[in-house]
From TrEMBL:
UniProt cross-references to InterPro entries, sorted A to Z: Glyco_trans_34, Nucleotide-diphossugar_trans
Gene name in the database record: g8198
Gene3D superfamilies registered for this protein in UniProt: Spore Coat Polysaccharide Biosynthesis Protein SpsA, Chain A (3.90.550.10)
Name the record gives this protein: G8198 protein
PANTHER family for this protein: ALPHA-1,2-GALACTOSYLTRANSFERASE, ALPHA-1,6-MANNOSYLTRANSFERASE MNN11-RELATED
Family that this chain belongs to: Belongs to the glycosyltransferase 34 family.
Lineage: Eukaryota, Viridiplantae, Chlorophyta, core chlorophytes, Trebouxiophyceae
Keyword vocabulary terms for this entry: Glycosyltransferase, Transferase
Domain of life: Eukaryota
Length: 340
């Protein structure tokens, strides 16, 4: 039987991502009315810098069992905190939420999305990115993960680490996003994102991204990554909120507007999202933890109820296998008796 869970060095997933050899640095200086200056040293042509990507970074790829006629879909998350696949005896401690230990709670959205992806026949990728301080905020590294995984799929659905499919999960959610975002190959859209909360200036919230694999989509990702280099007036976004989302608003969206679908925030990307919940950082850590644990508990309750009600297909499969094993054992015993 082929393994469905693969623990992969992140560097292996990056092998096809363009990398400009050698650091090509430039200094950007911004001066505003208060004479505030920002100097940023940035590799001007690099997608990723090897010095930050340790060989110890471990990503997880869970292969889905596709349904007949279903496109090849990857559900992607990227996280700098830790790998979701930890075989240590203290793995369960990652799920604690205390004053001094809160990062583990971000494994709960990961677990919820993993279960959903398996149920829907999608591949699930938990892409571990560097935790070290980089010349960019870690929010930018979702673009590196997307650039690495998009060529391998027809569609990639990216979810931030504080984002999860609302349990028990809307069936065929990725296909719904493709339809609502008009992302089929016969249509001209490349990316579906949701509108941003009207209280904020950005055009979209990039905590949820649906991308169609096309050469123009790869070009868009590259323009997005280099936006703050080609437009020095946006260099502050390398380290300051709203990071890559601000670059999308000010640089990418104006350039690629005809390829972008803007979907409803309330359906796909908010704390009260109908299909996808994004428990964004405006909430306190305690409020976020309560949302994560509540969603995980609801998912587990649903799985238990399903077991109690009985999954007839699974029960039949187990019964047939058990019967075959008994008959096979009896046949072997009969052969031995006949020989004696």
């Amino acid at each position: 039987m082929r393994r469905s869970v693969h623990i992969v060095p992140t560097l292996q997933l990056l092998k096809d991502v363009p990398q400009q050899p050698g650091p090509l640095y430039q200094t950007i200086e911004l001066t505003d009315k208060s004479t505030y200056k920002l100097r940023v040293r940035t590799p001007s042509q690099e997608w990723w810098s090897p010095q930050f990507w340790s060989a110890s970074l471990q990503s997880v790829v869970v292969k889905g069992r596709r349904k007949k006629g279903q496109p090849l879909i990857g559900m992607l998350m990227a996280d700098s905190r830790h790998s979701m696949w930890d075989d240590s005896s203290e793995r369960h401690l990652l799920f604690r939420h205390t004053e001094g230990q809160k990062e583990g709670m971000y494994l709960l959205p990961t677990a919820i999305n993993l279960v959903y992806a398996v149920q829907q026949g999608y591949d699930f990728i938990h892409f571990q990115v560097p935790a070290e301080k980089m010349y960019r905020h870690s929010a930018w590294l979702k673009l590196v993960a997307l650039r690495a995984m998009l060529p391998k799929y027809e569609y990639v659905l990216y979810l931030d680490s504080d984002t999860y499919v609302r349990p028990p999960g809307t069936p065929d959610l990725a296909q719904m996003l493709v339809r609502d975002g008009t992302l089929t190959a016969k249509q001209d859209k490349l990316i579906a994102v949701t509108k941003e909360d009207p209280r904020f200036p950005d055009v979209a919230n990039t905590g949820v991204i649906m991308l169609r694999n096309a050469s123009a989509a790869l070009d868009m990702l590259e323009d997005w990554w280099l936006a703050v280099i080609r437009h020095p007036e946006r260099a502050v976004l390398l380290k300051a909120w709203s990071f890559e989302q601000g670059a999308f608003t000010h640089v990418v969206y104006p350039q690629y507007k005809k390829f972008v679908s803007l979907l409803q925030l309330e359906r796909y990307n908010s704390p009260e999202g109908e299909h996808i919940c994004h428990v964004w950082s405006l909430l306190t850590d305690q409020e976020r933890a309560e949302r994560f644990f509540g969603a995980a508990a609801k998912l587990l309750q649903g799985l238990r109820e399903g077991q109690e009600q009985g999954d007839t297909a699974l029960a039949a499969e187990q019964l047939v296998k058990g019967t075959q094993d008994v008959l096979k054992a009896k046949a072997v015993g009969a052969q031995k008796t006949a020989r004696t």
